[in-house]
Structures are given as C-alpha cells and as structure tokens.
Amino acid sequence: MELSPHYESDLLFFFDARPMELALYQALFHQLEVLFPQVRVKIQKTQISFYGRHLFAAASLPIRRRKGWPEHCLVVTIGLPCRLDSPRVAVAVEPYPGRWTHHILVTREEEIDGQLLGWLMDAFAFSERK
Fold first, then answer.
1. Domain-embedded: residue 2
2. Is the dihedral of CA 110, 22, 92, 71 positive or negative?
3. Which residues contact 73 (CB under 8 A, 6 or more apart)?
4. How far apart are CA 91 and CA 106, in angstroms?
5. With contact defined as beta carbons under 8 Å apart, do 40 and 50 qualify?
6. CA-closest candidate to residue 53, choices 117, 102, 126, 104
7. Range of 112's domain?
8. Number of folded domains in the chain?
9. Distances (CA, A) of 25 to 15, 31, 102
10. Are 119 and 77 in contact (CB under 8 A)?
11. pLDDT digits over 36-47, tens only?
C-alpha cells in the first residue's frame, strides 16, 4: 500500500485516546493490505480514505453518534451501485442516481469477515469502472 511518510504518527493522532478503535482499524488495514496492495491510503481530519483510481472506502470514527450505536466502533464506508439489504448497514444513502453510500459499524475484529471484505472488493471494482 502507498502510505505517506508520516502515516504512523498521523494514525496515532487520528485515534488519540481510542485504543479499541485503533485495534479495529489495524485489523481492517491488514485485511485490505492483502486484498489491495496497490491502493493509496490517506489520513484526513475526519476519515482514513482508501483509493485505487478513485476513492472506494473509508474508515472513520462516529462524529454524530446515533441513538443505539455502540460506544466503541469503527465506521467503514463504501460506495456501491445498489443499496445493500443487510442489517449490518447502519446508514445507506443515494447521493447520486446509481451510487449508494453505505456506513457499516464494526465493533469487533470478527466483523471484518468475508461478507465485509466482499463488499469492499465490490466497492473497489465499482470505483474502478468510473
């Protein structure tokens, strides 16, 4: 993966005082590193973005926690051409016709499973077709 020279320090700053969320992110990152060794990772103020030719996924901390959301979680965001029908999707919106943004809450490493990784692969393929 293509990382900035300050990736490690930026990562620690992003997850400051959030060790549980950092551990979830690191588990996600290791899976993505295997599936997408060619992608770029960019740590921004509110999210960590994953790019092929285009943005295909992001990891973030909940800024506005909705009622019923867990205290500790990582939000994984993906873009797909259709709405996912899954209880794992916390929020789905269609900002443009034929482009759905899905926010999936990850609370345990076990949730970084084949289903989530399949959705990430679909999101990567969708973003590459743009």
1. no
2. positive
3. 21, 24, 62, 105, 106, 107
4. 13
5. yes
6. 126
7. 7-128
8. 1
9. 9, 10, 17
10. no
11. 999 999 999 999
